Amino acid sequence: MTLGEGYVDGKITVENAHIYDFLDLATRIMRRIGSLPLSLMAENLSRVVRYIQQFNFTQHARRNVAHHYDLSRQLFELFLDIDRQYSCTYFDRPDDDIETAQINKKRHIAAKLLLANGQCVLNIGCGWGGLGLYLAKKLDLHVTGITLSEEQHAVANERALNEPMAGRATFDLRDYP
After folding, report:
1. What is the pTM of this model?
2. What is the spatial distance between Cα 175 and Cα 146, in angstroms, rounded to a whole number?
3. Rounded to whole angstroms, how far apart are CA atoms 176 and 12?
4. Whole-angstrom distance, CA of residue 138 vs CA of residue 108
5. pLDDT digits over 139-156, tens only?
6. CA–CA gap between residue 41 and residue 88 (Å, rounded)
7. Rounded CA Rg of the chain
8. What structural domains and CATH numbers belong to the chain?
9. Is residue 55 within 8 Å of residue 47, measured between CB atoms?
């Protein structure tokens, strides 16, 4: 990072060669260093440390989810669609708005899963219930959504109560096994 910034800022120059020649040389040197036994040991140790640091212990999972998702509803309403879909959209046409693109995404997911009437769907990490509610409304499915977010759980259940699906979409506050 420092090397690149130094080059861009003009603090590092390559004389009698092109920047690509310098990068080629640096890459070859790094490859050689990376194959040395001490380098390989350091890389393996780094992987183990990273795994330990990133391991999501069950007792920490709820806290991690709360830190990210249990914020005010108004905050998420500022940048999410009306269904509060958090993941990417699916634009069929360049003039699709966010609402249309999110519906396209849900329709696309349902089609790819080859869902048929009467099936049961487990929606792990169900968010605010948008996909589960869509599937329960559009298809004769029973959807169980699970989340660790208290806020998402509350919103999903409030929304399910206001839908005429006779309990086909339920949302639980729990971790998946």
Report:
1. 0.67
2. 7
3. 52
4. 13
5. 889 999 999 999 999 999
6. 39
7. 24
8. 2-54 (no CATH), 81-173 (3.40.50.150)
9. no
